[in-house]
Amino acid sequence: MGGIKMTAVVSNRDKVAFCEVADHYHSNKVLFGINYLKKWALERLASCAPVPSWRAKFHKMRGVNLGKNVYVGYDVIFDRLHPEMITVGDYSEIGDRCILSAHTRGSLTTRQAYPRTMAPIKIGSGVSVNPGCIITQGVEIGDNSIIGIGSVVSRDISPNSLALGYPARVVKKLEGVGELQT
Q: Count of alpha carbons within 13 Å of 37, Cβ hemisphere only?
């Protein structure tokens, strides 16, 4: 009986994407791979950690810029490749199952027409991003704003606003906000 051969199966798409990102960071591919696996493990831990402050700590260890007293819900995905491009201000809340993606790219066949792009995401202080929202690259959400459940934020939201929908749009200006309620 012959021995079982174990071979790593990595698609051409994965190889191209991996090399593209490693080159972007001017990183040795082996070191980049080790760092990526470390960040992936931290993200998995953050997704299921039972205490919100632990989830925030794991995401900070990945490179996400979180202010003080930030609530991070379960299964939140901060950009897996570029977590350092995301900033969340003090006292903000990111609800369960939100996705914040600071990059986009086309498939192997559309790369020429739709190349990889990256832009930071900035969420101000006192912002509430309700569960199931998607925040796309280059978006800035002003202080003390509320993003409604399941909204897709693809453009800037001014401070002190209630925004919702697909795409999210401001439906109401909020008055009397900005004071820390203890």
A: 5
DSSP assignment of 97-159? T-EE-SEE---TTTTTTS--EE--EEE-TT-EE-TT-EE-TT-EE-TT-EE-TT-EE-S-B-S
Among candidates 63, 55, 58, which has minimal Cα distance to 86? 63
Helix (H) or strand (E) holding 63: none
Rg of the chain in Å (alpha carbons) = 19
Task: Give the pLDDT confidence of 76-99 residue by residue, as tens digits.
Answer: 999 988 999 999 999 999 999 999
Q: Can you tell me the distance from the alpha carbon of 2 to that of 41, in angstroms, rounded to the nearest whole number?
A: 35
Q: Kindly state the helix (H) or strand (E) to which residue 46 belongs, with its residue range.
A: helix 29-48
